[in-house]
Each structure stands twice: as structure tokens, then as C-alpha cells.
Design a protein that fits this description.
Order of helices and strands: HHHEEHEEEHH
Largest sheet: 3 strands, mixed
Radius of gyration: 17 Å
Number of helices: 6
Number of domains: 1
Helix content: 40-55%
Distance between the termini: 20 Å
Strand order of the largest sheet: 3-5-4
Shape: globular
Structural class: mainly alpha
């Protein structure tokens, strides 16, 4: 922690801290005799990954020059529910997730993890492999699509997203509605 001279330096520090914390969580290996199961610290790791994506998306709300391709259409991030559209942007390697899947990721992963420390039933997380897909779409017997979040590749694209976002901050912050609102929140 430090005293920050401006929003940019605080944001850079915060995002770098989150990446370090999520890296620890996802690369930690639980032992079955201590935890009752194998795996990583998936719940806090995923919470942080979705927090990072949510953060990056928030700085583009109201920026009508920042376009994201969703289902072949050009879209803007307009409100809180749209923040995770950032996953389809250049920052996250243009994932090409359809709006239905992005909504599921927001509602059944990001929100439930953040507010209730759980996932929706029939939603999945896996450690995955670094070079694998961060999001796999699975279909149930009725053809309903559900994303599976693979944490290692999600971490990999999140590291790149944060690095690229930080590199672009000088061109992002002047047009960010959220940055302006944050600056107005003083006592």
C-alpha cells in the first residue's frame, strides 16, 4: 500500500496486486488430506479474475469510440451489466463469446462468486492448461450452453489484458466516465 498521487498510479498498483494474488491462488495446489479435495484456490482466484475483467470493462463505459465485436456486431460497453463484454476485446484476445454466455459469466460466475462465494449449479471451473481455452462452452442434454472457466488460461489472458490496459491508460482515462466519477468522490 502507498499514498497515490493520482488515479492512474493507484489503478496500476491495484491491478498488478490482483494479478500477483490470483497467480498465487491458481498455482497453489491443495492436498486432499488437508482440504478433502485436490485442486487450486479456485474460488478466490476466479473472484479476482472476474474482478479484473469487471474493472477493465468499467473504464470503457460511455466511451463510444471503443467498440467490441459480439455476434458479428459492433457494440459499446454501456453499463455495469456490459463490463464483461471486455472479454471479447483485444485486451482478452477477442474471445468471441456470444451475449448469452457473457451474461452467464457475469451472473453465474462473477456475481455469485463475489457476493455469495459460490457458483450456480451446473456451472464449472477447472484449473485447465496454460495453452488451453479460457472458456469452454458445454451443452447439457437439452442443448443449454454453459461456460466452463479454465483458470490457468484465464489467468494468462488476464495478465496480457492488464499489461495492455496499463499501456493504454493515458488514452483511456481521459474518456472514462467511471474515472470522472471516481475523481468526484472526495470527502
Amino acid at each position: 500500500m502507498a499514498i497515490y498521487p493520482d488515479l492512474k498510479s493507484m489503478l496500476v498498483d491495484s491491478l498488478k496486486e490482483k494479478i500477483i494474488a490470483v497467480d498465487y491462488c491458481i498455482n497453489y495446489r491443495k492436498k486432499v488430506h488437508d482440504w478433502g479435495s485436490n485442486g487450486c484456490l479456485g474460488f478466490p482466484g476466479a473472484t479476482l479474475l472476474f474482478s479484473i475483467a469487471d474493472t477493465l470493462g468499467s473504464y470503457f463505459v460511455g466511451n463510444n469510440t471503443f467498440k467490441i465485436h459480439v455476434d458479428g456486431k459492433s457494440k459499446e460497453i454501456r453499463n455495469t451489466g456490459d463490463h464483461l463484454l471486455i472479454l471479447n476485446s483485444k485486451y482478452y484476445g477477442s474471445q468471441n463469446l456470444n451475449p448469452h454466455i457473457v451474461k452467464k459469466l457475469y451472473t453465474n460466475y462473477r456475481s455469485l462468486l463475489t457476493h455469495n462465494s459460490v457458483l450456480a449449479f451446473d456451472h464449472f471451473m477447472d484449473i485447465g492448461v496454460p495453452e488451453g481455452p479460457p472458456f469452454e462452452i458445454k451443452k447439457d442434454a437439452n442443448g443449454v450452453e454453459t461456460p466452463c472457466v479454465n483458470l490457468l488460461p484465464f489467468l494468462g489472458i488476464s495478465k496480457a489484458a492488464v499489461d495492455n490496459f496499463i499501456s493504454d491508460l493515458d488514452s483511456i482515462l481521459p474518456f472514462s466516465k467511471y474515472a470522472k466519477n471516481i475523481k468526484m468522490k472526495q470527502f
